Amino acid sequence: MGSGTWRRIVAWLRSGLGYNSGMKSRLVIDLSRLPEDGERFEGELPAEIFDLPPEDAQATGPLIYDLFVQRFGSELLLSGNLEVPFEFTCVRSLHPFIQTIRLDPAAISIEILREGEMDVTEALREEVLINFPHDPRCEEGDVEQECEIDSRYLAVDKLEEPEVETAPRDEASTGWNALDALKDLKDQL
Ligand SMILES: [Zn+2]
User: Fold this and answer.
1) CB 124: neighbour CB atoms within 10 A?
2) What is the pTM of this model?
3) Which of 40, 90, 152, 176 can pair with 138 through a Cys bridge, CB separation 3.0 to 4.6 Å?
4) Do the domain assignments include residue 146?
């Protein structure tokens, strides 16, 4: 799992704390009404449930779920499929692109901590987030896109090359130039 994914999970844990479980934008399972042989739940949850920091990927549509929910002792099993479109930024070309995260099949097991109503929204949210691409690439988007690196970024890379490499190749002084460059570097640190 990449560090980016962990960053998203941490962001999710932080942002999830403020949720009001009484809102209708949640999927709540009433355990007391859930048939022993399970029940199917279909619907949509608004994109807002993801509520990720602006520099992160953003949901561009609702989370669509079609799940069969069944209880096994102290565990609630949700199986079926989930899908939700996100706008990612390509790690190579930095282009924004839309990729639908599709979990089919999805299987989510949640421990039942208390009886009554159980809000499973955050479990669905987490399942989507941990299935984000580690290195989003625009070629893998819903609409095929050519992954071209913007020449502006190439120019920036050139400016950042260490000066040692562009120093004049004078045989007698190259060694000293390199040493001076190292000294300068040390002073800057
Ligand atoms: Zn790209």
Assistant:
1) 23
2) 0.68
3) 90
4) no
